[in-house]
Design goal:
heterodimer, A: 523 residues, Glutaredoxin, Immunoglobulin-like, 3 domains, nine-stranded mixed sheet, six-stranded mixed sheet, 23 strands, 27% strand, globular, B: Immunoglobulin-like, 2 domains, ten-stranded mixed sheet, 1 helix, 47% strand
């Protein structure tokens, strides 16, 4: 709910206003008219303070990640050299988006109109299923001139988005066949020489973007960081055509399936690999991983090997590596394997999330009891706000599973209190997956304290400041960095009680299926 | 998308009072200008309603407005329009870096307060819309929990 905006300080008017009020009060008393109502008391509004253009700049300069795996609205491969022809704004979205994307393209339109014809913009679809080349051809008619719209296969789009550290997820609307996409809604600025310089959060207005564009393209080369700039020259597909292609080396396309990848202790990274001959499906392949810094220097920070996993429910073979990413931010993951005579090499940028205070992967699960139906006399509403509860998710406590040395999946999510768009979705997914894994308890934990008043669950506190139940607190999900509004969380724990994976926000079925299969195959 | 919070509510309130004063001074009784007393059931007032035309055939259009309480707490429950097959109420939110939207079943209008439907926040989704051109207007019928139906004309524009 939006509070009343603060009244414009117009002192002259204010004086007149006070006079009118005073007269009214006197008159009201005199004639007995009661004057009440009027606007609610103004809360001190947070007027958007002017953000200096420098604030949008990245602290360092990096080569703009490749878009060249994609094709434009004419079906032509996107030429990365476009990014060296003039400043370019890059935005990831989808055409069926009625709110955020048109609002953003409208702002970009203003920037283009103001800056002039040297400037370009690129719309990258995160919805290749619906955003076909033919569809985009029609869509660009609604976009300002100078806009390219890019799409590709699901793998190409995912690979490209990963390079840009753009996240997206399909969100079912409840109507069969219809869905929307959640996605990173930042606008990226590539300067005229192919370097990624700034990003603008959703809602940044045209004048602020324009000021940053002018700052970056202004007189002379803008202050480049001290980092080596040898790699800043325009390049083509730096990650999709790895290394020198002399000898029997082929390109490996790496798709990261994991929806959350964490900084800190080794985090599982689920990958699908595609070579020149198609998707790799050999479960005996030796797959090596190398993590390097993403600053152009490419210092090696860790190495790992990946294990093949093929749960019956997932059509593709996935490769899972336990990867150490020292700190939150961008890292570069190079993946290599040998298929016949050919060595395949590919690389991808990985965005490591800050785990904050959440229970660490590799540590023992908190020995805290999650309430079960037995604890509450079988009254489901006391432990789940799901309007259609699946009681199987409330029969086992995490302490039961730990005592029985059973792997389990903990879903910290609310069916009713939707603090984020993802709320309730992890719970829905759990109900769907629980049938696949009869020996693995899926345990639902309501994160927010609530009271049952007659037959309704009423949150304690408010949706914006909910109270966290102790069991959820024990997993650290509401503490520093993430907070109570970060639901849902999913943790996967093996038979030794060790946390093997965790996910925040939108979680996919593969995230759970593949890690559970990995645990079950004893890896 | 500057959704100007049009005329200051305080300004119009003062104007109303001024008219009232003039009316009283003039000896007449301009009852129409008396602001509705608290607790009465004045329907919410809608200002600045607009619809962004869809960016492609078959795509949804988005609608925005400011809903101001008529005094009592109320909630917007549903919307219909002759220009659309159906209209949904959505909320856009950003969570762990991803911005997405979610249908909502009701939108609370706090007593004496207001709710703004604007890009990146609450908005209407008009599905199966008929062809809309900038400059057209679209009739929206809003159903409130307590106040019932309120009809509003929304301007079709880009923003």
């Amino acid at each position: 709910m939006v509070p009343e905006p603060p009244v414009a300080s117009d002192s002259l008017f204010d004086g007149a206003y006070r006079l009118v009020i005073a007269l009214a009060v006197i008159l009201a008393i005199l004639v007995g008219v009661r004057v009440v109502g009027g606007p609610a008391t103004s809360a001190p509004g947070a007027s958007p303070s002017a953000v200096p253009p420098q604030a949008y700049l990245y602290p360092d300069t990096r080569v703009a990640p490749a878009l060249s795996a994609l094709v434009d609205q004419d079906g032509a491969p996107f030429q990365q050299s476009v990014l060296t022809g003039g400043p370019t704004l890059v935005f990831f979205g989808y055409t069926h988006c009625p709110d955020v994307c048109p609002a953003t393209t409208g702002i970009i339109n203003e920037v283009l109109a103001e800056y002039g014809t040297a400037m370009r913009a690129v719309f990258v679809s995160v919805d290749p299923e619906r955003d076909t080349v033919a569809w985009l051809k029609d869509y660009v008619k609604y976009l300002p001139k100078g806009f390219s719209a890019l799409t590709g296969s699901a793998v190409q789009v995912k690979t490209t988005a990963d390079l840009w550290a753009v996240r997206y997820a399909r969100v079912e609307t409840g109507t069969p066949g219809e869905y929307s996409m959640s996605h990173t809604a930042d606008v990226y600025l590539v300067d005229g020489v192919g370097s990624l310089r700034a990003h603008f959060p959703f809602g940044t207005q045209a004048d602020a973007m324009l000021a940053t564009v002018r700052l970056v393209t202004g007189a002379g080369a803008p202050a480049r960081s001290a980092a080596p700039t040898a790699a800043i020259a325009p390049t083509t597909a730096p990650t999709l055509a790895p290394g020198a292609t002399t000898g029997p080396v082929g390109a490996l396309s790496v798709e990261v399936v994991s929806s959350s990848v964490w900084a800190g202790p080794a985090t599982p990274v689920i990958m699908r690999l595609t070579g020149p001959g198609g998707r790799l499906a050999d479960t005996r392949l030796a797959v090596s991983i190398q993590i390097t810094t993403d600053d152009g220097r490419g210092e090696v920070v860790s190495r790992a090997t990946a294990v093949a996993v093929k749960p019956p429910s997932v059509p593709d073979v996935s490769y899972v590596a336990s990867v150490k990413l020292p700190s939150p931010g961008w890292w570069r993951m190079t993946v290599s394997t040998q298929v016949g005579d050919t060595r395949l090499v590919g690389a991808i940028a990985l965005a490591a999330l800050d785990p904050g205070t959440t229970s660490s992967i590799g540590t023992h699960a908190p020995a805290v009891h999650t309430p079960t139906l037995d604890d509450v006399g079988g009254v489901a509403l006391k432990i789940t706000t799901d309007p259609l509860p699946d009681l199987r998710l409330s029969r086992t406590s995490t302490t039961d599973a730990l005592a029985a040395r059973k792997p389990f999946v903990l879903i910290v999510d609310s069916g009713r209190f939707k603090v984020t768009p993802a709320c309730g979705k992890a719970l829905g997914l759990a109900k769907y997956l629980v049938d696949r894994w009869p020996t693995v308890p899926f345990i639902h934990l309501e994160p927010y304290a609530y009271d049952v008043i007659t037959d309704t669950a009423v949150i304690r506190g408010s949706l914006s400041a909910p109270t966290i139940v102790p069991a959820a607190d024990a997993w650290g999900v509401a503490g520093q960095r993430w907070g109570a509004g970060s639901m849902p969380w999913v943790f996967i724990v093996d038979g030794n009680g060790t946390i093997r994976a965790k996910y925040q926000g939108v979680v996919g079925s593969d995230d759970i299926d593949i890690i559970v299969a990995l645990i079950q195959q004893g890896s | 998308m500057p959704l100007s919070s049009s005329s200051s509510p305080r300004r119009s309130f003062a104007l109303g009072l001024l008219i009232l004063l003039l009316g009283l001074i003039g000896g007449g009784c301009s009852a129409a200008a008396i602001p509705s007393p608290a607790g009465s059931a004045a329907p919410p007032s809608i200002t600045g309603a607009w619809v962004r035309p869809p960016q492609g055939s078959g795509l949804p259009a988005a609608g925005y407005m400011v809903i101001k309480s008529g005094g009592q707490a109320d909630a917007l429950l549903s919307i219909t329009s002759t220009a659309a097959g159906s209209v949904e109420l959505h909320e856009t939110t950003t969570m762990s870096g991803m911005t997405g939207m979610q249908p909502i079943s009701r939108l609370e209008v706090p007593a004496g307060g207001r709710v703004e439907l604007k890009p990146g926040s609450y908005h209407l989704m008009l599905m199966s819309v008929k062809a809309l051109a900038v400059g057209d207007s679209v009739e929206l019928v809003l159903t409130f929990e307590k106040s019932g139906k309120v009809t509003v004309k929304a301007e079709v524009k880009n923003g």
